[in-house]
Please model this.
Amino acid sequence: MSTATAAREYLPALVNPHLLPFYDRFSRFLGARDAHWRLLVQAGIEPGTRVLEIGCGTGNLVLLAAGAEPGAVITGIDPDPEAIAWARRKAARAGSAVALQEGFAEEIPMADGSVDRVLSSFMLHHVSAPDRVLALREARRVLAPGGRLHLVDIDRGEPMPLARAVSRL
Model:
């Protein structure tokens, strides 16, 4: 099941938009928070680091990043307006100044070289193999010189594994 936003389709978290209220509990049950911490440690976010999470969903990783390094500039994009609304409510409750907006990883609404880190957490498996390549190219485009991409995902066993998608950039 996919949902249209801004005349484009996307696959929502947990596949069904009606399951969004259960996403945070489900991801905690599966251990996503541990993976998020490992990703943040690997990313080495420091004060002033400009961070973008593509496919931020309900904001779990961006909020964790903002709490871990309040001096960083954290932005999250996601095509799902309901997930962004959910993330904004969580950010407001936490008093977090993360920027959250609708957007697709394949068309990141940011300038070239505008971020130091791009994060992606359990999102790329929602994107078709050809669009995955576009998303990774977009991540490279928005990264400043010396910037880095950090991602964690699952392998669906598709004909084009993620490693091959990255090598095609």
User: Anything to note?
Assistant: The chain has six helices and seven strands. Residues 81-94 form the longest helix (14 residues).
